[in-house]
Amino acid sequence: MKQRNEQHTEKQNGQIPSILSKVQLLHGDRVLWVIIPILMVISILVVYSSGVKYDTPTGNSTTANLWKHTIIIVIALVCLLIAYRINAKTYRRLAPLAYLASVALTVAVYFIGGSTNGAARWIDFGFFMLQPSELLKLATVVFMARQLSMKQKSITTQRLVPSFNPLKWREPAQKRIWRDGTLPILLPVALSCVIILPAHTSSALLVFLISFMMMFIARVRWQDLMKILLVVAAAAALFVAVGAGRSTTIRNRISTFFATSDTPTGERALNTLSDTEHAMIAIHDGGVMGVGAGQSVMRAKITHPESDYMFAFFVEEYGIVMALFLLSIYAWIFVRAINIFKRSEWIFAGLLAVGLASLVTVQALLHILVSVDFFPETGQNLPLVSHGGTSMLCTAVALGIILAISRQIEEGSLVPTDRNETLTQPPAENI
After folding, report:
1. Strand-pair partners of 119
2. Domain residues of the chain, as ranges?
3. What is the pLDDT of residue 84?
């Protein structure tokens, strides 16, 4: 009788009874529980295939690379399960500490970190190469969800951007804007972007895009949103104009993106082509059904097929049909997060779910746009598929947090810490 009542309740809530619901560990969004292992299996297959280019006559580096990547996936799965069991209140409480720690690590990498292509990005712990900017991206989303949820009572009237005239900043009204809007909401975003920018420009862009999206969903005044875009555009133009940070690299990548050659790609030697051009050839050769697993030719020509151009390499071996399936998986992660947002009575949890899902989906979109030559090279990998330890772990934690929120909604334990963060009409109309 009890089992029938539980099934009846599930049907009333619009949920299809699932065998996963009978496993205590796997409560929460059923679709995400299916999507995550699919991405992990795809990751193992393509990383193993891409590792063939590293084979040597005296070694079996492909197998070693596979074992290393498999271990990372297992650790990522453990991190996901741990994140899944932690309640949203804990994430809200730890958000400031996690943010400050991530800022400190990202700053430290410029002094003690390794350098790749002129960009300081890694801290070598011997057994693991840590990329602090990945931690900061994750921590910024959690901290922004906390800050925006705390301001929901006044967010529709609260100004975030002070006057562009510094002489007015001493006025009481301007001081309130700085105290109540600029410092608690805009400063964390600006700080994260500025710290990440010299090492990984595209990651700074990603942090800004996700934060801007979260502010829009949280009902920040549209006038302030437009001012933020204006300020960021002016700052970016100044950054490139003065040649700060990696602006030279940015200009070169943009120039390469818009450059055209008098000689058709098919008539030029393969070793003279760029990675993006190799990626386009890979996509062309893949066709509808692909050349088959392990049969890629371009994997030996692309510099980092296992990370920066994973999507093109995937299309070559598995075809456009499977590529569209992979793209739909990332889109579905975002759709599931919106569903969680609309079911959440706590604005912090809802914003956090959408922000983290956006982080995964938008990064995947940037990666794919580069692979199909619709965007300049960014260096962003394909979340939960491309080879990369820190990125894999952070993506797993992000998905684990989303699952934790969906689990608490299902259990009815998602209770706000402040009644002002409970909205009778959540700002779902913004999405």
Report:
1. 116
2. 35-430
3. 96
Among 286, 299, 278, 274, smallest CA distance to 55 is for 299
pLDDT tens readout for residues 250-295:
555 555 555 544 445 554 555 556 777 777 888 888 888 888 877 7
pTM of the model: 0.85
Q: Can you give the pLDDT at residue 252?
A: 55
Taking only the tens place, the pLDDT of each residue in 2-47 is: 444 444 444 444 444 454 444 455 788 999 999 999 999 999 888 8
- The identity of residue 52, as a single letter, is V
Q: How many CB atoms lie within 10 A of CB 331?
A: 12
Give phi and psi for 268, each to the nearest 5. Answer: -105, 155
pLDDT value at position 249?
55
Paired tokens of 122: 């890694």
